[in-house]
Write a structure and sequence with these properties.
47% helix; 2 domains; alpha/beta; 21% strand; transcription regulation; 8-stranded mixed β-sheet; transcription cis-regulatory region binding; two-stranded antiparallel ribbon; 13 helices; LysR_HTH_N; D-Maltodextrin-Binding Protein, domain 2
Length: 327
């Protein structure tokens, strides 16, 4: 019997649905069903009755459920007691370059105002690097937070892996890839652009040059994400740059256009001064979803909860901005 099986049992009872429980646990319905069947086989009893109205515990299942809840509560108390000895003096954060441009500085400013004694270490990384590191991280007591963009395809591909590796993910907001053009560009007065139009334009591409892991998880996430952009790059970009600032400067000087997430415009001087414009794609949508991810081995302490609160607050401000400008 494994601890996660008890958590599965409690979640199924709470939701009265295998499907909803699987969604809440970030795993597939078949995987959850297999885990419960394995537990029933090990215990030699039937735990749930499935009907059109939902899933309900059997008589013996209700007794085991009560014991499971008690066990999980006691284990939670053990972690709470242990967490009191863990002094969080530094926050370790890994975030996408586009997040570090506007979102992260504002979130950290809010956090530092309320927690001035806490040091923060922020590193730029790609989604595949951040997730690969978390998936393979052992029982290290140092918690690393990641702010990543997870596509629908990656979400579906790795839903079981999140649960198995004990990586929690909290949804922040959704976004999409857009076209950035300089204010002097012939298309700057438009609000939308098509794929055929973008194919004809010289493009500037951002490429993060830091060494990244080339393991199974990183490679799979990278190849899955790259498929989303292949239709946009039928021709080689005219320029490839290694920093987001360089990309914005070159686009503002009208040396090419760039395809980047709209979050790059949040709080950015180039956009606020009107030097850069955003064009949405009228015939294709490349959605992306931002999450904060971390190992959930130990309960979050008050400092970590405060950090997540401020991150969510700033992402909500960005979401409101998108709605206001119809991005």
């Amino acid at each position: 019997m494994r601890l996660e099986q008890l958590r599965y049992l409690v979640e199924i009872s709470h939701t009265r649905s295998i499907t909803i429980a699987a969604d809440n646990l970030f795993m597939s319905q078949p995987s959850l069903s297999i885990a419960m069947s394995s537990l029933e086989k090990e215990l030699g009893v039937k735990l749930f009755i499935r009907s059109k109205t939902g899933v309900t515990p059997t008589a013996v299942g209700a007794e085991i459920l009560e014991l499971s809840q008690d066990a999980l509560m006691k284990i939670e108390k053990i972690y709470v007691v242990a967490s009191k000895e863990q002094k969080t003096e530094q926050l370790n954060i890994r975030a996408l370059p586009a997040i570090n441009c506007g979102i992260m500085p504002k979130a950290l400013s809010k956090f530092q105002n309320s927690h001035p004694s806490i040091r923060t270490y922020v590193r730029e990384d790609k989604t595949q690097t951040i997730l690969s590191t978390l998936f393979q991280q052992g029982k290290d007591k140092t918690r690393n937070f990641g702010i990543v963009s997870i596509s629908d395809a990656v979400n579906a591909l790795f839903e079981d892996r999140f649960a198995e590796s004990g990586v929690a993910k909290e949804y922040l907001c959704s976004d999409e890839q857009v076209c950035f053009v300089g204010a002097a560009h012939p298309l700057a007065e438009k609000k939308q652009i098509t794929q055929s139009e973008i194919h004809k334009l010289p493009k500037i591409r951002y490429q993060y040059y830091e060494n990244e892991p080339n393991d199974y998880y990183a490679s799979l996430i990278r190849s899955t994400n790259d498929k989303s952009f292949q239709s946009m790059y039928t021709t080689e970009p005219v320029l490839t740059v290694g920093t987001v600032d360089s990309l914005k400067k070159l686009v503002a000087e009208n040396l090419g256009v760039a395809i980047m997430p709209s979050i790059l415009a949040y709080g950015d001087n180039y956009f606020q001064s009107g030097q850069l414009k955003i064009l949405k794609f009228s015939d294709i949508t490349i959605p992306m979803h931002y999450y904060i991810v971390y190992k959930a081995k130990y309960p979050l302490n008050p400092i970590e909860k405060a950090f997540i609160h401020y991150v969510k607050e700033v992402f909500q401000e960005f979401n409101d901005m998108r709605a206001q400008f119809e991005i």
